[in-house]
Design brief:
Blueprint lengths: L5 E7 L4 H16 L4 E7 L6 H7 L8 E5 L5 E6 L4 H5 L5 H11 L3 E7 L12 H7 L8 E7 L6 H6 L10 E6 L3 E7 L4 H13 L17
Parallel strand pairs: 1-2, 5-6
Antiparallel strand pairs: 1-3, 3-4, 5-7, 7-8
């Protein structure tokens, strides 16, 4: 994968009008986005491509399929059926969103710490409860801590998605679990015990609100 570029992987099974139409839309769109993305075409039935087909688990997916893969390896969007250039552009997400998606897709818990950094070079103090949670023998290895600077305009969509006021007192901790459920939000005083209690409650009812998949909300056992 090219450094700092997205890769749009075009998976197709056979040459037909649907494949030709999708490729005809994707190619010119990618030409306009050449500075930030590249495209790769993969025939899903080609034995030589089995490794990448298996990696993304698309052998039984409807074709053609376009997966947008961020520089960090996170899948940010999947496109099937009709799409256009504007839809393709929605695959580009903020750095912190990419990191959260990658961790969740790796079946990890995410503690996104929203902090107030006037200078991005300034050191950041991670809330003690978050540090204690990461140090937990059971959950620590399956947990990622991701720092989000509330002053970074590039993260405005991330803050909006999780209803975090960029002007509110910081830090704010957003607790996420795979496949993409928000367990809760906490201020910087939250303890490890409070985080564990919220996680336990989510695991006891993993599909509350219809937001979780069959795998539930906890880290993969």
């Amino acid at each position: 994968m090219a450094a700092h570029k997205y890769v749009f992987i075009f998976f197709w099974k056979e040459k037909n009008p649907q494949t030709d139409k999708a490729w005809g839309i994707l190619q010119p769109a990618m030409a306009k986005l050449a500075d930030s993305a590249e495209v790769v075409s993969i025939q899903s039935t080609d034995p030589a491509e089995k490794r990448i087909v298996d990696k993304y688990g698309v052998s039984r997916a409807p074709m053609p399929l376009v997966l947008a893969v961020a520089p960090c390896g996170a899948i940010t969007k999947a496109f099937t059926g009709a799409f256009d250039e504007n839809k393709l552009r929605t695959a580009f997400v903020s750095s912190c969103t990419q990191l959260c998606l990658k961790a969740l897709q790796d079946r990890k818990l995410v503690l996104a710490c929203v902090v107030d950094q006037a200078n991005p070079q300034d050191p950041v103090t991670i809330p003690k409860g978050v540090e204690d949670f990461r140090a937990d023998a059971k959950f620590g290895p399956a947990t990622e801590i991701i720092l989000v600077n509330a002053r970074d305009q590039g993260e405005a969509a991330f803050l909006k998605d999780f209803q975090v006021d960029p002007q509110a007192r910081k830090p704010v901790v957003v607790f996420l679990a795979p496949p993409g459920s928000m367990i809760g939000k906490f201020d910087g005083t939250a303890t490890k015990q409070q985080l564990l209690a919220k996680l336990a409650a989510a695991q006891s009812n993993p599909c509350a609100g219809g937001k979780c998949g069959p795998g539930g909300c906890g880290p993969k056992k």
